[in-house]
């Protein structure tokens, strides 16, 4: 069992590396490629990916989950850029004293909000309301649940048993926390396995 698990791990390393986080070498992350056409809502892509995962269509699950993560990153980037753009174009007036002195401030605040909605609508290629998501979906992305599904979707075609799935899943998570040499040490692997197994999405 141990030999087959390590064979699966080595095969897994031949796959294109998923984007688990930011750049690892300290260089700025490259600018994301602009989406062609309207940006697809990430919650719909996420739901499609999860459904494909549970139906056993792991190729589609990987495709949709990766697309959901790209859409989520792109949406955050658009919101940040529009906020900066509109803050520069619509500076807030200082609050003054006396009756009605606060009106210029609130007027500028409303203009900035309209500017931001217009900017987002243009960059998203459609209504901003399409990208409002439920609290459950927002919580899943904050807790990195889509990465757990994606991780297992990469693993499933390589593993034959639940134990192999768990072993490979833990191995991938350890690579995020330790060096390659540390992960290959049985003592480190066993200790970290006890911490991670069952608590970080490595349930098979």
Automatic annotation (TrEMBL):
Residues 20-39 are annotated as: Disordered. This is Prolyl 3-hydroxylase 2. It comes from Microtus ochrogaster (Prairie vole). The lineage of its organism: Eukaryota, Metazoa, Chordata, Craniata, Vertebrata. Residues 1-21 form the signal peptide. Keywords: Glycoprotein, Signal. Residues 41-156 form the Leprecan-like alpha-helical domain. InterPro entries: Collagen_mod_leprecan, Leprecan_dom. One of its GO terms (cellular component) is endoplasmic reticulum. One of its GO terms (molecular function) is collagen binding. GO terms for biological process: collagen fibril organization. Residues 26-36 have a biased composition (Basic and acidic residues). The keyword tRNA-binding does not apply.
